[in-house]
Please model this.
Amino acid sequence: MVHRSLSRQARLLALVCASSVAGCSARNVVVQVGGNAGGGGIGTGGTDGTGGTGGGMLGTAGSAGGIGGAAPGLKWGSFTFLPTAHPGGRLSDVNGDGKSDLISLRNGLVVSLGNGDGSFAAGVGIGGPNMLPEIGDLNGDGTPDLAAVVGGASGNVSVLLNNGDGTFAKPVQYSGVDNASALTLADLNGDGRTDIAVPNRASAGTVSVFLNAGGGAFAPPAQYGIRNTLAQRAAPASQLAAGDLDGDGRPDLALINFANYTVNILLNDGNGAFAPGTSVATDIVVGTLAWVQVLDLKGQGRVDIIVGSDNPGGRLGVFPNTGAAAFGAAVNYAVPAVNVLVGDIDGDGRMDLVSGDLLLLNEGDGTFVEMPHFLPSEASALGDLNGDGKFDFLLVDGVLLSTGP
Ligand SMILES: [Ca+2]
Ligand SMILES: [Ca+2]
Ligand SMILES: [Ca+2]
Ligand SMILES: [Ca+2]
Model:
């Protein structure tokens, strides 16, 4: 367990925001959080560049520096909180007007187009499962499509293709998953088309890989077993992330077991077939290991693994990639995984994390600085809500719009 103290500047910033929490329920409270100008970036696609579309930097990059560096200072100006009623969910610009739209749940998927001021038009039901989707360009037309799993023993993967204007074709179901609760999108066989991988919670620990046959249609899945030598219980994977863990340029899979606190790695042979790699034991034994992501935290071309448990006493653990899909001892943070979001919040080119109302700012050395209670309420999603290229937060009770400078 590593305890990291906040830098003086970070502490001041946290205090500024903490003291504004009560006021943030009023309208248009401005939260001053830093001096330097510049926007943030938003990555919603694959974390290693192999995933779906929609990733990349939306904001203009600021100058070098950042919290914890020689010249600390968030490259934000200020934020304005607007209490806005919305159901929460995922953000993506589905109709290509430069404003993030909201994908939420109401007996299926609902699309609410962004008005460009932090509010949303009335939602339109598009069918599909009552499970938030992953977002990526599945048919290669440059517009974001949706894929979500349907749970249960006879579950399936539901694919909703964007007609190109933010309306969606009827969901197409693909069978071959078993009690799944998550999927990830990445081009697993290197043909330029986005594929789908789904961990099966039943079936003694397997992953179903659906290769994209073109046009957003998917072939019947191949199943790959997960070695699980560290299993304390026969608990198959529940969540996964795709990224190049062994440095061969092909996206691999990191899977977490929801009960036995291990991370299992499946290595990609380059054709979208997978063989078991290492199992990494975490020392996170509180709650359920509920979240996994892979990110190159040091910017050295090696993808690290981050896991989190969802209990109030839970933690986030960062496993540094020491090369060839081997991972060093975890750096742990006393932060439960609460709807963890990934994005370059402070615009320094490094991916940061948001968990609940807390920020974890990437220092660039594989560690994070914790900024507790930084947001006035829990974050639901990150995106550019008003189309100005700057990072905004969709909070559970409104939006926090970046207002510059
Ligand atoms: Ca839009
Ligand atoms: Ca598309
Ligand atoms: Ca592919
Ligand atoms: Ca690889």
About this structure: Confidence is low (pLDDT under 50) at residues 1-75. The pocket of calcium ion (ligand 4) is lined by residues 244-246, 248, 250, 252, 267-268 (CB under 6 Å).
